[in-house]
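[INFO] parsing input record for ABC-2 type transport system ATP-binding protein
[DEBUG] input buffer:
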Amino acid sequence: MSEVIRLEKLTKTYGRRRGLAGLDLTVGEGEVFGYLGPNGAGKSTTIRLLLDLIRPTDGRALLFGTDCRRAVAHLRRRIGYLPGDFTVAPRQRVEQCLDHLAALRGGVPRARIDALAGRLDLDLGARIGALSKGNRQKVGLVQAFMHRPDLLILDEPTSGLDPLVQQTFLDLVREAKLAGQTVFMSSHVLTEVEAVADRVGMIREGRLVALDTVAQLRDRAAHDVEITFVGPADQAGLAALPEVSDLVVDGQTARLRLSGSPDALIRLLAGHRLARLRVTEPDLEHLFLAHYRTDDTVEASRA
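[DEBUG] output buffer:
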């Protein structure tokens, strides 16, 4: 799989404030990559550096093997971009706006624009200035997807959208992946990233704190376990396991968090009769929050 995005020690400082701190990252062709982090973590800074809207303090960013600071016009023809604050001239009608942007792209079949607008329930005859935030976001989505770019860079793409349109957006991302397009998507909506992303990167204070597939992140995360024994709960045995934390025993029921391999717990439970065993797999939101509760930034794993 060839690389579409490569970041090498990418650093951006704003005076005394650091936006990115030596970021290393690669995203492959046809991959959907979810980029997660709270406001101020460095997500939008990363995207602006990729698009050469701002320049790095150190390091470099490459798209399709080319430094982002070179051949910018050539690179941008291959990119569909939705900024986090999509704005266009308010007096235009939606149709005029999209026709103009399509012409700048070298032309887009009108049927493609109409189809996207129909799926997103976007009124092409409305004036931009009269649109709600959600409907303006729909315009942004149409202009990003309409020319079928090799790379989609989407900054908070579902901001303001209702749940039904969010599902349509996820369908568009899945279709883009099937067509071999690459999607780099920053988001606060963790469920949508979990639904479509091949890998996720979590950024905190300009540094990656996690980088892996959702499944592999789950495997390394703590699981919530509830055990109901037939008879008294084995509190002493459970407490002695190094993988067990947050143990609470209430009569015959024990609740705990399990980190790492379940092998020792399973061997312990094999010596008891159980009425019920429930293991809750962490979702992406729990993984995300767990990383942000830690005080120290952990080194990102490399895929």
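[INFO] The domain at 3-78+149-217 is CATH 3.40.50.300 (Rossmann fold).
[INFO] shutting down worker
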